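User: My notes are a mess, but here's the protein and S-adenosylmethionine's SMILES. Can you give me a structure?
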Amino acid sequence: MLKITVNAIFSCLKSIMDRDNKSILLRELLPIVQFLFKDRGEGSLLNEKLHSYIDGLISERNPLLTEMENYASVHNVPIMELSGIETMLQLLRIHRTERILEVGTAIGYSALRMADALPKAHIVTIERDVERLQLAEEFIQRSEHRNQITLIQGDALEVEDAVKEHASFDAIFIDAAKGQYKKFFEIYSKYLSDDGMIITDNVLFKGLVAEPEIETKRIRNLVKKIDEFNHWLMSHPGYHSVILPVGDGVAISKRRGESI
Ligand SMILES: C[S@@+](CC[C@H](N)C(=O)[O-])C[C@H]1O[C@@H](n2cnc3c(N)ncnc32)[C@H](O)[C@@H]1O
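Assistant: No problem, the inputs look usable. Here's the predicted complex:
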């Protein structure tokens, strides 16, 4: 039934588009609608149901974190997806991580989640957007974790000197401009402790990495960069990596050849 309805929507959009070549809105809209519904039969409905079920089991966050989640949602600030962040926090707990570098603070949500989950941890986090960093500062000051987080303002490609004063790190979390992932990895992996891990978010980019055709040029270029990063990472001679299909896709990388 769902498939029939979706096919009807496709043909309707397509026929309007074919009739009116000037319909830019539809031309932009069609690939997105196609992606959202393409090949989504009962299997993926079940998948979505399971994801909602799992998300529904995750405990409520404290009032400050909930306020941040609401702020991010209302103001379109991208923060890590719930299942992705829960997975990352569990890994950090198991790993007993104490020193963390985060590339991409936004409003400080993931930094505060890490500080909350790991009371002994210290998080150094980099953000280039001054307004977002200011908000992060305000939220962090209102929390009980203000002493656990150090904010660095600047482009992560340019603040290596400031970051290395805090090295080394047991975990590095990369969650900034997706087109620069390889550079962030190359710059900051130098400061990873021997048994440390690197966590990279958004490596599946809403599933678009597996799409053979993407019509919008900007998205296509970005997907290409993420796909290149994924191939580079998965065949990196210095790291064992795995991509977990949770949240927006989370890669976990661990140096090869260490004792742990
Ligand atoms: C996805 S958001 C980070 C979300 C945050 N980690 C969380 O889950 O709460 C990415 C942030 O990285 C910042 N950013 C992007 N490229 C950057 C760069 N080269 N240096 C520093 N920050 C960057 C953006 O301004 C944005 O606020």
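The longest strand covers residues 192-201.
User: Great, I'll file this with my notes.
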